[in-house]
Design brief:
By secondary structure, the chain is mainly alpha-helical. The chain contains five helices and no strands. 72% of the residues lie in helices and 0% in strands. It starts with 7 loop residues before the first helix and ends in a 7-residue tail after the last helix.
Length: 163
Amino acid sequence: MGSLRGDNLLIKAFLETAAPRGANVVLLLEIVMGIGLLLGARLARKGRFRQHAWCQSAIVLLNLAVVTVMMIPSFHVYVLPGVPAKLGKAYYALATTHGAFGAVTELAGLYILLSAGTSILPEKLRITKYKVWMRTILVLWWVVLLLGMATYTRWYVPHLFRK
């Protein structure tokens, strides 16, 4: 497949990883969910709020399932035993940062879902400035997605880090 230069870098990196199939599926799902959130935001800008709510809610709930089934167990087995002693190493630092930001972002997404989409929360706990909250969470989601991609690359694409 040639060298790791130019346009071949991403293709070679993705096709020649040490990642298990589950990690590849999670990566693709997260990318699709990130794009889906952008499309959902577009629905809101077009005034299609019901479709926006369904889209964003489905993605937040799907992500909760992915995090619960795939990410938390992986973090528990491969990262947590090295925390805090090995946080100086990129392997642990990236995964821990991704996990921390991801947890905050997912919880905030669930809070928005409960606040805007249900009457479960008491009135005084519901948000009123939806745009600010939703835009902030969308930006945070993409930060977490990029951190997840960096974590995936560090963990499963070792030939990028060889000298």
